[in-house]
UniProtKB/TrEMBL annotation:
The chain crosses the membrane at residues 20-39, 68-88, 94-115, 127-143, 163-181, 188-205, 211-230, 242-262, 268-287, 321-338, 344-361. It is a multi-pass membrane protein. Keywords: Cell membrane, Magnesium, Membrane, Metal-binding, Transferase, Transmembrane, Transmembrane helix. It is found in: Cell membrane. Its cofactor is Mg(2+). One of its GO terms (molecular function) is metal ion binding. Its main location: membrane. This is UDP-GlcNAc:undecaprenyl-phosphate GlcNAc-1-phosphate transferase. One of its GO terms (biological process) is lipopolysaccharide biosynthetic process. Mg(2+) binds at residues 180, 241. It comes from the Bacteria. It comes from Deinococcus reticulitermitis. The lineage of its organism: Bacteria, Thermotogati, Deinococcota, Deinococci, Deinococcales.
Amino acid sequence: MDSLRAFAAQLGIADPFGAGFLSVLATFVAALAFTWYFIPRLREFAVQAGWADQPNARRLNKEPLPNAGGLAIFAGFVGSIVVAWALRPIAVELVNIQVLAILLGAAILVLVGFIDDQFGLSPLSRLIVQVFVALLLVVNGLKMDFNAIPFLPTLPDAVNSPLSTLLTIVWIVGLTNAVNLMDGVDGVVGGVGFVVSMVLLITAARFPDRAAAVILLAGLAGACLGYLRYNFNPSRIIMGDAGAYLIGFTLAAVSLLGTLKFSAGASLIVPLIVLALPVLDTTQVVIGRLRRGIRNPLGHPDKTHIHHRVLARTASARRTAVILWFVALACGALGMLLQGVPLAAIAVTVVLVGGSLWFVTHRRLRAHDRERRAEGGL
């Protein structure tokens, strides 16, 4: 028993039988179960309502594909947080306010993303809303500190405060759009969202004052995994902008609540490494479009994203998704190593994440085989 507790401590678990760990586990399971069982019902309704992406030159689907999966991810995410609060209420008032600010911002972006999915919104209107939700976090104390970034000069408060606010807005808006831009191949964003959530969860669990971040990440990880059961190629539903905005925004916001605020001398290096895949993807796309003379690089979709390049080489959406999942996992492992997470905890994270991804993809492929036999009358 003592050896079990000692090993659990390396993973950031103070007591594997305590209320804290059990509430995190319950949050993850609740999000996973709700999303897993809710998506088929939502899909049926979406088909009837006409909530679907039509085939075009940039999409892989050959027929209309329901695009309301983001609503299921959001419902599973929020529902699991309610379960967590019921099991173990967060007593710190400031943390409660910040968590509610994140949930409110996520709800606003899910709504805007869903409207864009169904009716279309201009890039400017979406950007205005994204800046607004970023400011919502800032006024509630979720803000980067420019002076905490190493290797840079310390600035006076009169300069540091507005610069930190600007940096926070760029981080929130940039990562929200970066994740959305990655959503071009079945399973990529759902899998990467799950991987990053789990990596940040294990990292944040090592800090005793990061309970709120851990709960939010557990809920997001469970919801992403439940969604992935229906989104691995050939997908039955896609998340649309609503789901991609939710994942990108929540990861960006929770990183402010947890892993970015280490201590004096904290830096952006670790979360940037963990989130390297969407960040690098967006960076190379924007630079490439600017070089081609495109003035609005985010408003001109093309096939220069990393997932498009990998897909062109593999000729398989499944292999593309798996490759990018493990690139994200490798970045996460490197980030954990730089954060000082023990090798045992990193190994457990890699095995746990890899095993979970194998489980849901295996279930999806088995379900697809049953669907083909049913269609063939076998």
